[in-house]
Amino acid sequence: MSVAGESGRAQQMRAKAQEMKDEAARTADPKERKRLTDQARRLQEQSEKESRGGNQNVDPM
């Protein structure tokens, strides 16, 4: 499921986020589950930013 124009890096980040979500679903430790879920969410957000237009934190000056 590829989005036209999406960078390979964004795709990799999205795939890694999905792996983390899957691992979180399998773990029995609530703290580890929360850590993995939070990390997956942050990675997903980063991949969405990157696929929308790259790194927007770069100062053009």
Structure notes:
With 61 residues, the protein is mainly α. It has 2 helices and no strands. It has helices spanning 8-26, 30-53.
Termini gap: 37 Å
Biggest β-sheet, characterized? none
Global mean pLDDT = 83
The helix count comes to: 2
What's the shape?
Answer: elongated
Structural class: mainly alpha
What is the alpha-carbon Rg in Å? 14 Å
What portion of residues is helical?
Answer: over 70%
Portion of residues in beta strands equals under 5%
Which regions have little confidence, pLDDT < 50, spanning 5+ residues? Answer: none
Number of E strands: 0
Taken in chain order, the helices and strands follow as: HH
Task: Give structural attributes.
0% strand, 61 residues, elongated, single chain
What's this entry about, in short?
The protein has helices at residues 8-26, 30-53. It is mostly helical.
Describe the secondary-structure layout.
Layout: H1 8-26, H2 30-53
Helix pairs in contact: 1-2
